[in-house]
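Example record for the data management plan.
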Amino acid sequence: MKILLTGATGYIGKRLLPILVAQGHEVICCVRDKNRFYCPIELRKNVSLVEVDFLEPETIEAIPTDIEVAYYLIHSMSGADTNYDELESISAENFVSRINQTAAKQVIYLSGIVNDSSLSKHLTSRKKVEDILNTGKFATTTLRAGIIVGSGSASFEIIRDLVNKLPIMITPKWLNTKCQPIAISDVLDFLLKSLKNPFLYNKNFDIGGPDVITYKKMLLGFAKAKNLKRWIFTVPIMTPKLSSYWLYFVTSTSYKLASALVSSMKVEVICKDNEINELLGVKPMSYEEALTRALIKIKEDKVISSWKDSLVSGRFNTNISGFLKVPKKGCFIDRRKKEIKNKENTIERIWSIGGETGWYHADWLWDLRGFIDHLLGGVGSRRGRTNKHNIHPGDALDFWRVLYANKEEGKLVLYAEMKLPGEAWLEFKIINNILYQAATFRPKGVWGKVYWYSILPFHSFIFNGMLKRLVR
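Corresponding structural encoding:
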């Protein structure tokens, strides 16, 4: 079957793609930027790319007309734009316009549970997108999920951050709101079994696990799975804004995402019925089992995708293509080089940089810079990295974004997403057994120059020490 997959670089899309290919389908992936799409070699035979931005109608013609089914997995609530609901509606309208011109018989849409008369902006937007998709000539199948539990999901990472960092929590009263979490593997199961199923055409279904619990019990459940003792006290005085800042400073989430989540967490998201479970023969796992599986994936370093790798997790809100070529004109550049003794060892060290591994030298200064950035409203360094040893273009790496990563070539280029009076790149490349390391900064105005000269005394200590450790 020929399937169109939108959101192919997102948390769900990255996990759905290999399963679709394994089932023998030909998958056309819709991406805004081909340079940040990584496809494993074993999948490439049955995967093709089309570069499409659904906010730009002129690009949608790239979608082939002979597709049979399309997955709509586009979501932007944590983006930099405050009018994300308007943008989501425009994207959906342009999507419908193009799919109407194709042979597609079905569109499968992953939405959020909407069973309350007073919905948050986020859930209202999800419902509006569903209404727009239902105007198409094709049959629409909408699957509505609440909290998705899985390694790398935004909800799971927030829970993990809170429980790991805070033995005692003074929390807002919305932690007593009930929800019905669902494991990521079950979400994928529902998405796959919905393919060309006529019993699901032009219908919507709530999907969830067997447990209806409060967010407080979700946190305590995670603590139990990790054998940690945690005490949680709820207070009625935390405003939504204060709650958002609380999440932002304690966890790795962005403020935009924290704000959207807080507004949604005040509304109960519980499935109306379990009809689809019987229709598709799916028996969702418990919250406890979902946690166990997620923790095993993390321990074994087998996290396939993470919400942090989405561009909306940082301040990078555009294609990475325009930043691939590191500029020289009007820039300050710290260049260093050193002969390497073992190329393979050096490459492995470079490819493991950041996250739990750290930066090999003066980690406390890197942590301090990340902390300052977090205080200023930036991404900080809490995002870490999805995988300890593998990185691909588009991945988040502490307060950097990976622009280019070619292990065979021995070249890695990072772009800074921290708040800066300018733009910064960090580049590693190996040529003839010489490791070249360059930190480039393009200042904006006088303050940019002041910033560069103020940190210049630290460069020799930080970058020279890091270079020595990389080649050692």
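Summary line stored alongside the record: The chain is about 35% helix and 20% strand.
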